[in-house]
Amino acid sequence: MVLLTMIARVADGLPLAASMQEDEQSGRDLQQYQSQAKQLFRKLNEQSPTRCTLEAGAMTFHYIIEQGVCYLVLCEAAFPKKLAFAYLEDLHSEFDEQHGKKVPTVSRPYSFIEFDTFIQKTKKLYIDSRARRNLGSINTELQDVQRIMVANIEEVLQRGEALSGSAEIDTLNQKKYSSESPTFNKQHFLSYLG
Amino acid sequence: MSAPAGSPHPVASARIPPMFGGAATSGAVAPTDPSLAPHQQNGPAQSQMQVPSGYGLHHQNYIASSGHYSQGPGKMTSLPLDSQCDDYYSGLYAVPTQNVMPPSTANQQAGAQQIYGRGPPAPHLVGSTPGSFQGAASSASHLHTSASQPYSSFVNHYSSPATYSANSSIASQGFPSTCGHYATSAVSNAAYPSVSYPSLPAGDPYGQMFTSPNAPTVRPVKDHPFSGQNTAIGHPLPLPPPPSQQHHQQQSLSGYNTSSWSPSGLPPTNDSLTRNHTGSLSVSATNPTSTDSSSSAVPPNVHLPKSSPVVSTAVSGAPSSRMPPTAHHPVEPVTSVTQPSDLLQQKGVDSSSTTSSASPMPNSYEALEGGSYPDVLSSSASSPAPDPAPEPDPAPVPAPATPQPSKMAKPFGYGYPALQPGYQNATTPLHSGVQPSGSVYSGFQQCPQYPGVSQLSSSLGGLSLQSSPQPESLRPVNLTQERNILPTAPVWAPVPNLNLDLKKLNCSPDSFRCTLTNIPQTQALLNKAKLPLGLLLHPFRDLTQLPVITSNTIVRCRSCRTYINPFVSFIDQRRWKCNLCYRVNDVPEEFMYNPLTRSYGEPHKRPEVQNSTVEFIASSDYMLRPPQPAVYLFVLDVSHNAVEAGYLTILCQSLLENLDKLPGDSRTRIGFVTFDSTIHFYNLQEGLSQPQMLIVSDIDDVFLPTPDSLLVNLYESKELIRDLLNALPNMFTNTRETHSALGPALQAAFKLMSPTGGRVSVFQTQLPSLGAGLLQSREDPNQRSSTKVVQHLGPATDFYKKLALDCSGQQTAVDLFLLSSQYSDLASLACMSKYSAGCIYYYPSFHCIHNPSQAEKLQKDLKRYLTRKIGFEAVMRIRCTKGLSMHTFHGNFFVRSTDLLSLANINPDAGFAVQLSIEESLTDTSLVCFQTALLYTSSKGERRIRVHTLCLPVVSSLADVYAGVDVQAAICLLANMAVDRSVSSSLSDARDALVNAVVDSLSAYGSTISNFQHSALIAPNSLKLFPLYVLALLKQKAFRTGTSTRLDDRVYAMCQIKSQPLVHLMKMIHPNLYRIDRLTDEGAIHVNDRVVPQPPLQKLSAEKLTREGAFLMDCGSVFYIWIGKGCENNFIEDVLGCPNFASIPQKMTHLPELDTLSSERTRSFITWLRDSRPLSPVLHVVKDESPAKTEFFQHLIEDRTEAAFSYYEFLLHIQQQICK
After folding, report:
1. pLDDT tier, B1097 (very low <50, low <70, confident <90, very high otherwise)
2. Which of B146, B847, B883, B1068 has its CA 20 to 30 A from that of B646?
3. Is the ipTM of this complex over 0.90?
4. Number of cross-chain residue pairs from A and B with Cβ atoms under 8 Å apart
5. Model confidence, pTM
6. Which residues have C-beta within 8 Å of that of residue A129, sequence separation ≥ 6?
7. Where are the domains positioned within chain A?
8. Architecture of A2-156 per CATH?
């Protein structure tokens, strides 16, 4: 279940677009997550890993950073990770095409709030189990989502400094990635995607 | 002769402003539902205000606590007169401020919004923080970290659930209070031990913010090396659920049922206030018996008997899964606390503070003024001991701990020692030339009032000189001797007696007016004057020119959160002093750059400091959630009665015409619900071949048959919407359903709207007769003209109020259009709009064929309604200078905390009023300011803050208080108070109170003048219209007795009084009468190439109606043209297009467009009057001796009627009362 989608500029954390919390999800207390998301945006910078999963209790944040724009989604923890990332990639390709060039120049928050319409439509595709089957193509392309870094949102937010490359190591789930090289970095990780 | 004014009020204390309050308090404790107001712990004062009996039916409950607001122990004052600084200051600023003339006006074409400081490479940076440019990545990240500190700290601060429970549980957007740590003063702790206000000393995050954020915005976005690699994944094929298959859909319906009906709504929104009944609303989602008729064209024969909810004709196996009850409360109110509260901003008390020692400087305006500080004033320095009582004032008490400076002087202001010199200051220069004949009416702040223009014709107004020692406004007028009390030119708002520069900067009276333009120094003085003190606001009115400011930092006072405004003082280049709480604040770096002049180092020339009305583009700190889209839901009565009245055709036609003009962006959503004894939804999901009607017959337990295709994107589903609108008027033509399940339909609307918020427009034509919120007729027609008790002015049920509060919590406003021929209990129905910040329209005896003028009015009103500007998820806060406090707000809204009004929607036609009291004497200041901040989301998804600031002088003598009365503002405030009084107490109490308001103020004035003759009724010139207006009020539909008045008409008049802005309300109270058969171009004005004649105003008396004339009466929402029997045939032919008097038709509602000079003049004049108001008035041509003339004659309020005094008799009555 996709609960919250936000797009922000990495440089200053300025929110660019978001999807209103809606429908059946509205009963949940999303405010807390929303403010966590806002804080996260302020912490991100160029050194931050460009793909990351952050656990927040029963929920999970996933984000990708592309061209200085962060695409973030809040899902239930059970929501398939690869779907979440495929969803983000979808948002990215459309957003970049529509607004990519304007991103560095805007100063008003939610300047591209109208992108919400697209977000909603895309979201529907991903949360509808019938429609989801047709997204089969993504299975192969993103099979390596397993390697995406996992951290805990609270830890990230409470750490004084920004989420950065060097700090990643601490938060890596060591058990899960024990086989990985400790000098895991984004270059390495992205090569999987290539 | 018996009734109208009645006997003197029995209780002496119940007079004038206090009188309303006094009775209100006692009345308030009585009836309301205690469950409505569990303590809201918004702030110390809040809990005090929200007495359990509460916000309930009458606002004036608040008045109760008026005594408790006195500010903290010491008034913070400053030590001015630092002569060194003074010199420095005047030297530095004197010249620049000469140019105060707002540059914006110069550079700007009218009608254009100007955006300051907007645009990519924030120019502010020039020279400001050059350092931050250098290091690309590393320095930037450094900045980030530093910036993030304050955020995390304040967020933690908020996430402690006990903190702001009440606040944040209400979902609205709000200022997340970047700086809001409530410091707890010892006092407040004592009084409210249960509420904890963490006093995080954390360096004020706000303060830190402006140190860094400039840099990041400009940094070029990094170029990602892997761009493009991941974009390969194509769009998945859209695969909408096949909606055409009924069964399928029904299945998914049942699926939703189990999980999705939880009380929809934004989590934190469940206002604890309304918690207890949301339960009942949201016990939903059961037995969806909806049938899914696949075509909208199929008339609702599919109705299911409501008694058998499980039967479903079209659906196999109706799902009947009942939701586990626990699901209804997924969010307990307390857990939702984690958000930055939505207060406009908290008033922080800076415990460490300061300000008093700051060696403040005189206000820059002083420097211009000459900086004379009357010694008199500095003597009264030591501020009076405030009531030690329970005063947990959360409000700006900057330095509770700091010892009182022993010597204080006026922080700023200029001499206002006694009355005369002050007024001499104010003499004439501005009058010369400021009154150009042409454009006077476009904005009247320049129009002089003091010189009593009223006496002169408007064209001469500019010439008056005041050489007399006594200001014109104080000239005693012997009312009983003055035959023509009503001036022939319109009455303008008095201009506050400020120096020229402040006058130029001051807020337009169209937006912001005070009943007393000279604020009394103490409550004692105010009590002596016996005049009501309050503000009248029209905060969101349509403006032709508005400076819009985009900047990273919105500069606000750190302690009271006031927005920087033209009336602050700059102590030096780097510091400014708040004009409300006197705290000294730093000028942020960004503010040093002026985008308007592109110069650096002139903070006092920024647009914020040059305009008293500005709009800020808010940062994301001012958002609790992403800005909502515009969402419009129409809830339409389609019972037999409604179909018979025929409003659907007009509505659908208007909607079709204006569909593209609905304010909104590409996200705009729209939906329709119709109801009779069942509720019908319309699936308009894009992709359907035609709209689908879904009928829910279980009105006891309303649910949404499909969650996400009922409110659809306007642009994607436009064709379906058009189809529906074309089909709707004929869909129910043969209906035999007479019942109306309005309550359940509203519950459904609430469910539909709660995820986003927006606007619900309800069209109702009769008493709701089924389901929740059903009503019974309460009107006894025999009592319509009773002079005794008028009953049932209050609601019969709290259903509508509770619903409205729920809606308000979900940012949804409910607007009511009542089109009814019989009694519909507007008193109960109106609650749905009153408390949700909606608006109310009433069309009595509406019928689209039999009553064409009403039909036309509806059509025109709808056009305005649908296309006017709208603001969503708004909150409004009014602040005032320390020492003044607000109580009792009037208008349509929900009061969330002491001074925060929650407005789910704001529209340009909404007016508000606030009553004020003086808690602490204002001896230390010569100026007071009021600031209104309205935070809203525009229909384009921009979060904006509109700020108005009004500055007024403080006076110490009673005469000055009288000199500054704004009689129109006073009468409008009194009218608001009287409405509250009528509902909480009784109509006769309210009427007595109105009479006493005149009696008390005139007798108080009488005692101030030396040669007071008991034989004469003397009023100061400023108050000379007061008795006339009060008499007009007593004869207004809302308050009249003895004349047959339908209960709904009366209640509607009361609703209008509470929600209309002053300018429209005045016409309702005292219509304007003009003679129009001899219009000339003399004194005419030019508007858009049209010549508009300006006939003189006539007094409202039959003595002015000559049989040879034709008269136009402008009552606000109705125009009457009365044609005298002996009216010249020329006029009748040239203007009415009829050969003679006899041939004028009985029902004439239009003037023909004839090609004659007099026709042109008349139409031009009427068009001009029409254009000045948002809703188009109906025109009635009334022949002398036609039955319709009683309607017209009842507005001639100076004349005697069977049940009411004439004006002269009223004066005698007042005089009698005074002499008693």
Report:
1. very high
2. B1068
3. no
4. 231
5. 0.68
6. none
7. 2-156
8. 2-Layer Sandwich (3.30)
